Structure prediction request, 123 residues.
Amino acid sequence: MNILFYLMFLVLPNLDPKKDNYTKFKSAYNIIRYFIHTLFIIIQIIILVAALGYKVQVDFVMTMAVSIMFILFGNVMGKIKHNYFVGIRTPWTLADERVWVRTHRFAAPFWVMSGFIIFLYPL
Prediction:
């Protein structure tokens, strides 16, 4: 599955009508891309360790992974340029680039805050 995501992340920018914008947020795109790959590797390791009979606190590990995901995505959300595959894709953000920018800049701190709240939840 991770290999399919790898290929998808390579192909999607070429299919996007706004493909030129991907060069403008390449570092943010790579952070999202690499974290998704890392998340799937973590899930695979958890499955393998559990299959070998070891006790794994799946809920704790996945909660931490999701909280880190929210924090990382929130930090890069303001850098994501107008496109059709990455970001908050609603009819009004896709229709107007100004709305896209304002929506992402407004949502970014909430994603980071949510990540910290999720991080503290299991404690």
In short: The chain is about 70% helix and 0% strand. The mean pLDDT is 93. The helical segments are 2-15, 26-51, 58-77, 91-95, 97-120. The chain has one domain: 2-7+20-120.
